[in-house]
């Protein structure tokens, strides 16, 4: 009976380490995608202000991911883990995959070799545009677009200020991929 209790304890230790790693992976992937979402909004604002092809930015194209990997790695470090964060594509949308290895081990138990095992996990976050541009879109002209659940947004490139843009969360959703 005592052996069974120790075995359950060992499995609980491993499950706890795995859950911690998965939480760190989820957080790192989401942090990277949220940082990239901010880049998309900044790029959108610059493209509108400079008369560039801002429709690419609104649809999620043009993303470089500058700073996204660092954001994911920083959040993983706060969760006592090391992360490798890479840009990816999920169903045609930009995303970030985080692979995590915990800095801590599973710990001592009756199962030999667990004292040096680090938990590992992966997660992918995706950035999806939430807005539709009308079919009458033409670069350089006033355009109206609608974002999920929001009032229509009208942008006049000739009379535009970056503060006219809605929040990043209105323009793009960020969530974990299945």
List keywords for this structure.
178 residues; alpha+beta; 4 helices; 7 strands; 29% strand; elongated
What would you say this structure looks like, in words?
It is a single chain. The chain has one domain. 39% of the residues lie in helices and 29% in strands. It is built from four helices and seven strands, in the order αααββββββαβ. It has helices spanning 2-50, 54-58, 68-78, 168-171; strands spanning 81-90, 93-105, 118-129, 131-133, 143-147, 153-155, 172-176. The strands form two sheets. It has a four-stranded antiparallel β-sheet with strand order 1-2-3-7. A three-stranded antiparallel β-sheet has the order 4-5-6, with no helix packed on it.
> What form results from the Cα inertia axes?
elongated
Can you count the beta strands? 7
Strand order of the largest sheet: 1-2-3-7
What is the helical fraction, as a range of percent? 25-40%
Strand count, sense and closure of the main sheet?
Answer: 4 strands, antiparallel
What string, H for helix and E for strand, traces the elements in order? HHHEEEEEEHE
Radius of gyration, CA atoms, in whole angstroms: 22 Å
Percentage of β-strand residues: 25-35%
Compact summary:
Helix content is 39%, strand content 29%. The chain has 178 residues and is of the alpha+beta class.
């Amino acid at each position: 009976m005592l052996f069974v209790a120790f075995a359950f304890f060992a499995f609980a230790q491993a499950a706890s380490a795995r859950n911690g790693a998965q939480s760190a992976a989820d957080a790192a992937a989401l942090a990277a995608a949220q940082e990239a979402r901010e880049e998309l909004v900044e790029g959108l604002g610059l493209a509108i202000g400079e008369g560039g092809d801002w429709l690419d930015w609104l649809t999620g194209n043009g993303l470089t991911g500058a700073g996204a990997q660092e954001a994911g790695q920083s959040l993983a470090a706060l969760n006592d883990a090391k992360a490798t964060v890479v840009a990816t594509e999920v169903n045609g949308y930009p995303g970030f995959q985080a692979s995590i290895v915990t800095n801590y081990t599973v710990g001592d138990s009756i199962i030999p070799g667990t004292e040096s095992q680090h938990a590992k996990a992966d997660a992918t976050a995706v950035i999806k545009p939430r807005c539709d541009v009308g079919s009458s879109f033409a670069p350089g002209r006033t355009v109206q677009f609608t974002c999920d659940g929001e009032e229509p947004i009208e942008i006049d490139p000739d009379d535009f200020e970056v503060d006219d843009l809605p929040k990043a969360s209105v323009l793009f959703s960020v969530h974990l991929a299945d």
